[in-house]
Amino acid sequence: MTRKHDKNTEDILKDIPNGKIIINRHNSTHENTIFNKDFRYCSDGRGLVDTYSVFPGIELSFNYYYANCFEFQHRPVHSAMQINHCRSGRMGWKMQDQSTIYLGPGDLSLHTLHSCADSAMNLPLGYYQGVSVFIDLDALTATPPDILSEAGINGNNLYAKFCEQDGHTAMPASEKIEHIFSELYDLPERMYLPYFKLKVQELLLFLDMLDLENTKRLNQYVSGQVETIKEIHSLMTSDLKRHYTIEELSKQYLMNTTTLKSVFKAVYGMPIASYMKEYRMKLASNMLLQEDKSISEIAAAVGYKSQSKFTSAFRDIFQILPTAYQKLYRNQ
Fold first, then answer.
1. What's the rounded Cα separation, in Å, for the pair 191 and 196?
2. In the predicted model, what is the mean pLDDT of the chain?
3. Do 273-332 and 4-218 fall under one CATH topology?
4. Are 49 and 63 in contact (CB under 8 A)?
């Protein structure tokens, strides 16, 4: 049985028109989630959300987005928390306070539904797949599941630990986070709810035990820095025959080299040189399959004067020579 959560994001969303998010609420009626009746969105792409009621006041959703950006508006709720785990792709969520948190594969974020009431989600790689857990903190305090009750976990403590100061926090991927979420993506349907209950409680136990003061956090970035990096990305990808140095970009955009490198990696998930190499090779792989050009012409089109250097770079990314790649995939 092929499970939806194992598929490519674009394949999952192929039947959904642009500008549309389909929200499937399975046994879910709770209002204190992002997908309540006041939820509004605007996008240049498409999305799918499958959400399940796990406990009273706690829901879990699988999220699939294929777009450049989504803008969200919904009812602000201080007493509700959203926990996000990125499985694949990359997401930058610009919160109501204008700070942006970027998540890559394995990263985790927590925020109140007040923080994201009027917010924008940018997808630097064009797609995102992940899981969200929505928690009505008042309901968790009033009627916690037995295991959480025994551990003394309640909504007030969660809010005070993770959201009281800024309304949001985020942490990078770790083995413990991966252990909690990885099994969610490979379940037969009959095991959905039992496993969701198990994993939600495991997640909340983990968060309760977490020593936040000694835990590495993901940086938050102001909107001006992010917009500058997007302009730099646009410049570099608009003319692949031109190769820019970090120093050139730093002077042109009045951003010091350390900040430029740090913010670019946060937004796009890789250092600039690695990103541009992969960007060029992915474009070249499409040209090999779709255009009637020689290897040397394709190499030149993506910024390589030397065919041998292009071939070496292509093999680094795809573990196959360009000629073999073309022969293997062109007629499929």
1. 8
2. 90
3. no
4. yes
CATH number for 4-218: choose from 3.90.1330.10, 2.40.160.50, 2.70.50.60, 2.60.120.10: 2.60.120.10
Question: Given the structure tokens 């109140």, which residue do they identify?
Answer: 112
Q: What's the rounded Cα separation, in Å, for the pair 132 and 130?
A: 7
Q: What angle do CA 316, 317, 322 make, to 5 degrees?
A: 85
Would you call 121 helix, strand, or coil by DSSP?
A: strand
Main-chain phi, psi angles of 50, to 5 degrees: -110, 115
Question: What SS3 class is residue 235?
Answer: helix
Question: Hey, CA dihedral for 145, 151, 157, 161, is it positive or negative?
Answer: negative
Q: pLDDT digits over 160-211, tens only?
A: 999 887 778 999 999 999 999 999 988 999 999 999 999 999 999 999 999 9
pLDDT one-digit tens code per residue, 24-73 = 988 765 555 556 567 788 888 999 999 999 999 999 999 999 999 988 88
Q: In this predicted structure, what is the pLDDT of residue 31? A: 54
Cα–Cα nearest to 117, from 82, 160, 165: 82
CATH of 273-332, one of 1.10.10.60, 1.10.510.10, 2.40.10.10, 3.40.50.300: 1.10.10.60
Report residue 219's pLDDT band, with 50, 70 and 90 as the boundaries: confident
Angstrom distance (rounded) from CA 13 to CA 129: 11
Tell me phi and psi for residue 315, to 5 degrees.
-65, -35
**Rounded Cα gap, residues 114 and 167, in angstroms:** 8
Domain ranges in the chain?
4-218, 220-269, 273-332
Tokens of 70: 């989504």
Nearest to 169 by CA among 105, 271, 95, 243: 95
The candidate with the shortest Cα–Cα distance to 263, out of 229, 235, 227, is 229
Write the burial class of residue 260 (CB in 10 Å: 0-12 exposed, 13-18 middle, 19+ buried).
buried
**What would the pLDDT profile of 223-250 be if each residue is shown by its tens digit?**
789 999 999 999 999 999 999 999 999 9
